[in-house]
Design a protein that fits this description.
- The structure is a single chain.
- By secondary structure, this protein is α+β, with helices and mostly antiparallel strands.
- It is about 40% helix and about 20% strand.
- It contains seven helices and four strands; from the N terminus they run βααβααβααβα.
- It has helices at about 10-15, 20-30, 45-50, 60-65, 80-90, 105, 120-130; strands at about 5-10, 35-40, 70-80, 115-120.
- The radius of gyration is 14 Å and the shape is globular.
- The two termini are about 20 Å apart.
- The chain binds uridine-5'-diphosphate and magnesium ion.
- The site of uridine-5'-diphosphate has 9 residues, from loops.
Length: about 140
């Protein structure tokens, strides 16, 4: 399996509860390396651009409000099969469905406030990494 990079966000519900380190420990235990990371606060427009694939969904406005409500931690994770591995460590979107030991099972508050984002495919990972990080910020 190839070395891959994926894009991750530690969401406002998690930064508010001081869970950045606990979530990074889950990534590292799974063999994912945090190769870039910054704590920032998005505007609602920036959150809307990031989540524009969901623009027609009923939860879109609430999702954008939430993502802009408090700081997030934007990250690039690297590892063998990082995209699928990260989705596995995150758990299902709805914490009620998330497998035991996953980030969402342990930390998520609801289907909306579910602690983490992770890219779902190589194409989206590339677009999402480039939206948040310049090449100079990716030191590996
Ligand atoms: N979301 C929501 N209600 C839903 C489905 C999704 O509020 O019924 C939010 C949730 O924060 C989720 C994000 O929208 O993480 C993006 O949804 P997606 O289906 O892409 O889930 P993910 O890839 O994050 O597991
Ligand atoms: Mg998604």
């Amino acid at each position: 399996m190839a070395l891959e990079r994926t894009f991750s966000i530690i969401k406002p519900d998690a930064t508010r509860r001081n869970l950045t380190g606990a979530i990074n420990a889950k990534f590292e235990a799974a063999g994912l390396r945090v190769v870039a990371q910054k704590r920032i606060q998005l505007s609602k427009a920036q959150a809307g651009e990031f989540y524009k694939v969901h623009a027609e969904r009923p939860f879109y406005d609430e999702l954008c409000e939430f993502m802009a409500s408090e700081p997030i931690v934007a990250q690039v994770l690297e590892g063998e099969g990082a995209i699928a591995k990260n989705r596995e460590v995150m758990g299902a979107t709805n914490p009620a469905d998330a497998a035991e030991g996953t980030i969402r099972a342990e930390f998520a508050e609801s289907v909306g406030e579910n602690s983490v984002h992770g890219s779902d495919a190589p194409e989206t990972a590339a677009v999402e990494i480039a939206y948040f990080f310049s090449g100079l910020e990716l030191v590996g």
